[in-house]
Amino acid sequence: MIHAAELIRRKRDGEPLSSDELAELVLAYARGDVPDYQMAAFCMAVYFRGLNGNETFALTDAMIRSGETIELGAALGRKVVDKHSTGGVGDKTSLAVGPIVAACQVPFGKMSGRGLGHTGGTLDKLESIPGFRVELTTDEFLQQVREVGLAIIGQSANLVPADKLLYGLRDVTATVDNVSLIAASIMSKKIAAGADAIVLDVKVGDGAFMKTVEDARELAGMMLELGRHAGREVVCVLTDMDQPLGYAVGNALEIRETIATLKGEGPPDFTELVLGASAHLLALSDLGIDEEEGRDRAAAAVQDGTALATYERWIAAQGGDPREAALPMAPEVRQVLAPTKGFVRSIGATAVGMAALRLGAGRQTKDDAIDHAVGIRCLMKRGDAVAAGEVLAEVHACDDESAKQAEAEVLVAYELADEAPAARPIVLETIA
Ligand code: URA
Questions:
Q1: Of 198, 258, 273, 314, which one has the fewest beta carbons inside 10 Å?
Q2: Same domain, 185 and 309
Q3: Which CATH number do you get for residue 373?
Q4: Does the C-beta of 46 come closer than 6 Å to ligand 1?
Q5: Whose Cα sits closest to atom 1 in ligand 1?
C-alpha cells in the first residue's frame, strides 16, 4: 500500500526519495491509485526542493515503465531520428522539420505533447487540422513511419501514460518549470517512442521555461545524461525564446506558417531554426552525411517541393485535410498599431503567449477546450523599424471583446526604442 502523503511530506522537507519509492508513486498514479491532488502536491514539493540525479533517473525510468515502449529502429531496420522542444511561444518547429527530414529519406517518428502554461503544444496545433488523429495505435504508428516516413502522435493510453497524466496536471498547477520534471517528461517520451538519435531544442529566454542560458545548460546536461544512459545519441541546441518564434502564435495560424515555411516563404528566424535542426537530424541519421550536407539537402527539399508534398502525405495519412483552406479562421481580426515610431526592442514572449492563451488558444484548466482558430501574428520582430501607426501585430479572436483585450496585451508586450537592439542569433549554443 503506497503512502503518498508520507512521500509528499518527505520531499516537502527536502529528503531524497529512493528509486523504488519514486517508481511506486509514479506507477500508482498512472494506475489511478494516487489521486491528482496528491500528485499535484508532490509536483509542488519537487518544484521547491528539486530532484537529485538519481531521483531524476528513477522518475524517468518509472514514467517509461508506466506503459509500453517501441523499438522503432529495430522495427523499421533503420536508424530513426526525433526532435523535441522544451516549449516555447510560436514553436511549430517539429511540424516543419518532420516533413523535411522525411523528404530527405530519413524516418521521423515522434511523440508530442499538448500546450503547457503559456507555451503551445504540437498536438493542439495538429488538431486544428480537420480530421487529424493524434492517437494512433503502436501498430499504426509503426506502419505510418514505415510507409510515409513520418508520424507525430500523442501519448496514447499505452505510451508513457504517466507523462500524459503528469503533463496535464503540471500545466494547471504551476509546476511545469522544474528542470528534473521537464527532463523526465521529455526524455521518457523520447526513449519510449524508440528514436535512436534525438535533437533537443532547449529554449532560453522570456518565453521559455528556462530563463537563462545557465539554466538551459543544466537542463540540456540532464537530458544528455538521460539519453546516454538509455543508449541514444543526443544533441542539444539552445535557442532564443526572448521573442515569439516566427510570426504566428496560435494553433491554426501556426499550421499556416508551417505550410508557408515548407514552401520557402517562412519567417527568417523560424526558417533558420528549421533548417538548422533538420541539418542536425540528417547528420545524426544513417545517411552518412555531415551537417553541412544535411543543411543543403534540407534546403533542397524545401526548394523542390518534396518537403511540402511529404507534409501533405503525412497529414492525409493521419486522417487530416492538408489544404490550407480547410483550417479554421477566426471571425475577428484586429490590428495592433505602433503608438510611436522606433525600433522593436523586445516582444515579451510570455505576454504574447498568455494573450493567445486567454484568447482561447491554450488551456487555463485541465479540461478547457481550445479554440484552434484564435491567436496572434507578431508581424514586426525584434530589430524592425516601425513608423507610428504601422501594424505591429494582428489579433485573431472569436469576438470583439476578446480581440480588444488581446490588442491591449500585445501592445504592452511590444517595447519600442529609438535605437535598434543588438542582433541575437536564433541558435545560441550547441551541446553534444
Ligand atoms: N515538453 C515536454 O514534453 N514536457 C515538459 O515538461 C516540457 C516541455
A1: 314
A2: yes
A3: 3.90.1170.30
A4: no
A5: 86
Is the C-beta atom of 87 inside 6 A of ligand 1?
yes
Q: What is the pLDDT of residues 383-406, one digit of tens each?
A: 999 999 999 999 999 999 999 999
Q: 430 CB contacts (<8 Å, ≥6 apart)? A: 235, 236, 237, 238, 280
110, 170, 280, 363: which is the annotated catalytic residue?
170
In this structure, the residue with its CA closest to atom 8 of ligand 1 is 86
Domain-located, residue 401:
yes
- Do residues 297 and 388 both lie within one domain? no
CA–CA separation, 390 and 113 (whole Å): 36
Instruction: Tell me the percentage of the chain whose pLDDT exceeds 70.
Output: 99
**Number of Cβ within a 10 Å radius of residue 174:** 12
Which of these three, 325, 350, 378, is where a domain ends?
Answer: 325
Pocket perturbation via mutation, ligand 1, pick of 166, 167, 189 by most ligand atoms within 8 A of CB: 167
Residues 317 and 412 placed together within one structural domain of the fold: no
Structural domain boundaries enclosing 100: 72-325
Ligand 1 lined by 169 (C-beta under 6 Å)? no
Residue 113 and residue 40 share a domain: no
Calculate the dihedral angle through the C-alpha atoms of 353, 357, 361, 367, rounding to the nearest 10 degrees.
Answer: 140
Q: Which residue has the higher pLDDT, 148 or 117?
A: 148
Give pLDDT tens digits for 228-272.
999 999 999 999 999 999 999 999 999 999 999 999 999 999 999
Q: State yes or no: is 170 an active-site residue.
A: yes
Tell me whether residue 79 is in a domain.
yes
pLDDT of 157 reads 67
Residue 20 sits in the same domain as residue 78: no
Please tell me the predicted confidence (pLDDT) of residue 353. 94
Please indicate, yes or no, whether the overall pTM of this predicted structure exceeds 0.70.
Answer: yes
Counting Cβ atoms within 10 Å, is residue 237 exposed (0-12), middle (13-18) or buried (19+)?
buried
Total domains, the chain: 3
Residue partners of 152: CB distance under 8 A and separation at least 6: 94, 95, 98, 110, 111, 112, 122, 123, 126, 134, 314, 318
What spacing in Å lies between the alpha carbon of 175 and ligand 1's midpoint? 11
CATH number at residue 26: 1.20.970.10
Position 288 in a domain: yes
